[in-house]
Specification:
By secondary structure, the protein is α+β, with helices and mostly antiparallel strands. The chain contains 10 helices and 18 strands. A hairpin with a 4-residue loop joins strand 15 and strand 16.
């Protein structure tokens, strides 16, 4: 029998028509009809990678539903009206699809995070797929509610992901960039911590001999936030300084980074020394070094430390309108210098703002964060960027 399929949105655009005819045997199912459509060259790639629902006589049905002559079949791509899109898949992730899923007329900002395989030949992902999809959808729902997002989408791959290919993509849209950045950051951090997905690293040269499962975190009970014993509270719940007297004295280092975002015009002026108050990065460097030395005075429960080393470096990307500040601190002591490095970054960033506020009032300070630390009982730690 000959059956007519109705096409919409990207399917209609790719086919160049809103209807196509397919030949089906008597007793064929909806899955058979979708497979027949997928054999058409112009639709094959879309149907293979895109989650498509089929409506039979204007009702969504499962793939096993039987098709009869005269039935109306419609292929429905992901609907743009939904605020959340979540998927766990073995398919290659297509960033443009997630961008399209969160595009909205009211969205003035759209942020995409793309985590890719690095340093190893491939990553192999395993997931409890159904639960992971539900968990990711719940995380995106929460991010929308918390940050006032327009929409959010995330897809995570399973199986082998070669070097340079994306393993996870998160896209969010919001009226303003602050909410979009914050929503995307919360979504990816929670997906990595809560979704039941496991990762194994494989070095191509050594193959299975090199393979190792990447250590993760214990999942929170019932999806609740992780609870940790707070070392800076006593048994009565009052703030206290931690007693580090019993800890070993070791060499410790920490690196922190922060970004100051501005217009490309302001960044270009800063780069060539045209800021109204003079040498912006040089002044920020001195301010950051001085602040690191006084961290114990500025942060109430931080230990005063004698620093062996502290420095702050600044880099300007005029095209992107971003100044990146990197602070490094070192000591030989019983406690670490993470706070010293981050304090240096924070005060250096504030100094950059003060030095250029005459050029632009809308400058924003973003993402002051620890990049790495070494030494101490907890050992080395490096922020994972993929």
């Amino acid at each position: 029998m000959e059956v007519e399929l109705r096409l919409f949105a990207v399917l209609r655009e790719r086919a160049g028509t809103d209807r196509v005819l397919v030949e089906l045997a008597d007793g064929a199912t909806v899955d058979d009809a979708l497979a027949a459509a997928g054999r058409r060259p112009e639709l094959a790639e879309l149907i293979e990678r895109m989650p498509i629902r089929v409506a039979l006589n204007r009702e969504y049905v499962e793939g096993s539903a039987t098709v009869s002559a005269g039935d109306e079949l419609a292929l429905i791509p992901p609907v743009s009206g939904g605020a959340v899109h979540a998927r766990v898949t073995a398919d290659v992730l297509v960033v443009d699809d997630l961008v399209a899923a969160v595009s909205r007329p009211g969205a003035g900002a759209l942020v995409v995070f793309c985590g890719t395989t690095r340093n190893v030949d491939r990553l192999e992902y395993e997931a409890y797929g159904e639960m992971a999809t539900e968990r990711i959808a719940a995380i995106l729902d929460a991010a929308i509610a918390t940050h006032g997002l327009e929409a959010a989408a995330a897809e995570h791959r399973v199986g082998a992901v070669p070097l340079g290919e994306p393993s996870v993509v998160v896209a969010v849209s919001a009226a303003h960039r602050g909410e979009a950045f914050a929503g995307a950051r919360e979504a990816i951090d929670r997906i990595k911590a809560e979704a039941p997905i496991w990762k194994r690293e494989v070095d191509g040269e050594r193959g299975e001999e090199s393979a190792r499962w990447v250590e993760g975190m214990e999942p929170p009970a019932d999806g609740a936030p992780r609870l940790t014993k707070l070392t800076h509270l006593d048994d009565a719940g009052s703030a206290r300084m931690v007693d580090v007297g019993a800890k070993a004295v070791t060499e410790r280092r920490a690196v922190a980074q922060g970004r100051v975002r501005m217009s490309p015009q302001t960044a270009a002026a800063l780069a060539v020394g045209d800021a109204p108050k003079g040498d912006v990065l040089g002044t920020a460097r001195i301010a950051g070094i001085g602040a690191a030395k006084r961290t114990g005075e500025l942060i109430p429960l931080a230990h005063p430390l004698g620093l062996d080393f502290v420095d702050v470096e600044g880099a300007v990307d005029a095209d992107a309108g971003v100044v990146t500040l990197t602070a490094e601190a070192g000591t030989t002591a019983r406690t670490g210098v993470e706070m010293e490095a981050m304090t240096a970054c924070a005060v250096a960033a504030l100094t950059v703002y003060d030095m250029i506020k005459g050029l632009e009032k809308g400058v924003s300070i973003e993402a002051i964060e620890l990049v790495s630390k070494t030494g101490g009982k907890s050992g080395d730690w490096h922020r994972e960027r993929s």
